[in-house]
Amino acid sequence: MNAQQTNAVFLPLLTIDHADLDEPIRLVRNTEDITSRGNVYAACIFNINFPHETGDKVPSVTLVLDNPDRRFTAMLRSINTPATVTHEAVLADSPDTVEAGPYDYIMGQHTLTADSLSIELTHEDLLNQSIPRDVVNPNGFPGVFG
Fold it and tell me: Is the pLDDT of residue 103 over 90?
């Protein structure tokens, strides 16, 4: 139960989804495709770099895909609004059981080079939304001041 070592292999799963995509792009950091909960995740080399916490801004995660193929270029060109990215982790011997996640992100800025694609993943910026959303004044809410 509290072993310092294990033979279990964690496999990170990514699902990139958007209304303009025909179907979500599903990736697994592995050397071969896997099926998890009825969905096929394509083998892909990627890294997820987690941020250092700072109090002055919403932290962002960086997703780096090595040697991206044309489906990623086509995806980035076909969407006009941010896509959602879901990050989960499963074990190789039980891929239908999610061990960590799901963690949901919004796709931000990206940088595409010949050998990598770097995408900034963020959360909804709740810290900078005005509360309350509306300003209560006599013009907008005459019943309150009547």
Answer: no
